Amino acid sequence: MGKMLERLAPEYGFEVTLILDIHNNVNGSGFTAENFRDVHAAIEFTAPDAAVANLEKLAVLRVPTVAGTTGWFGQLDHVRQLFENNHAGLVYSPNYSIGVNIFQRIVTEAAVWMQQQPAYEAWAWELHHSAKKDAPSGTLLKLVEGMRAAGYHNHVDVASNRAGAVPGTHEIGFDSAADTITLRHTARSREGFARGALHAAKWIAANKGVHEFSEILFSSEPQS
Ligand SMILES: NC(=O)C1=CN([C@@H]2O[C@H](COP(=O)(O)OP(=O)(O)OC[C@H]3O[C@@H](n4cnc5c(N)ncnc54)[C@H](OP(=O)(O)O)[C@@H]3O)[C@@H](O)[C@H]2O)C=CC1
Ligand SMILES: O=C(O)C1=N[C@H](C(=O)O)C[C@H](O)C1
Asked: Residue limits of the Dihydrodipicolinate reductase C-terminal domain (predicted)?
C-alpha cells in the first residue's frame, strides 16, 4: 500500500516527508519527536504483528493517525485507550474502500431479514493475493461481526483463499432448497483502499477523537 499512498498523496494536498519501513524502523527506532515534528498525519499499513507497537508510538507522539493494517483488532480497546489518554486522533478500519463500507451495510441489512428465515444457511468467503499474511481478512471478520450485531445467530461457514495478485474479493451468501442469494464486492485494484485512507488522513488532521472510518464516511446519512 505504501507506494500507492505515496503516489496519490499529492492529490489530497499531502507532501510525503517520512516513510518508515523495517530498515529504518528497527524496534520502533523511527518514531522520534524529531522525525514527526512537522507531520500532520500518519498512515500505518505494515503487518499484523507490527501494527500495535507502531500505533502505540504514534499515540504517545500525538500524531493524527490512520490505522490500515489488519489482524490486530483484538487489541483495539488498548489502542483506543492510548490515543484517548494522549488526546491524539485515530481513524481505524480493516477496509478504506467506499464500496466495501456500503457493502457492509447491505450485508447487515440482509442479515436482519435472514435471521427470521431458518430455511437459509449462510457462508462468508474472501479471496486475496498470495502475499497476504492474515486469514480470514479483517474485512470478512467485520462483515460477519456486523451480521452478528444485526441479530444473525445461525452458523456462518467462513472460508479464505490466497492466490495470485487478487486485490480483494468478499462474498456473503445465503442458500436454501429453493434459491441462493449471493452478495459480492470485488476490488478492481488497491486504489480505492489508498484513496479512502488519504481521505481519512485529511479528516483526522483537522479533527479529534477515535473513529471507525464508516463514521466519517457516513457522517451525513442519505435521506430516505
Ligand atoms: N484497511 C485497508 O483498507 C487495507 C488494509 N490492508 C492491510 O494493510 C496491511 C499491509 O498490507 P500491504 O501494504 O499489502 O503489505 P506489504 O507487505 O506489501 O507492505 C507492508 C510494508 O510494511 C513494512 N513493515 C513491516 N513491519 C514494519 C515495521 N515494524 N515498521 C515499518 N514498516 C514495516 C514491510 O516491510 P518489508 O516488505 O521489508 O517486510 C512492507 O514494506 C495488511 O495487514 C493488509 O491486510 C491492505 C490493504 C487495504
Ligand atoms: O491484505 C490486503 O490486501 C487487504 N487487506 C484488507 C483485509 O484484510 O480486509 C482489506 C483488503 O481486502 C485488502
From this structure: 99-217
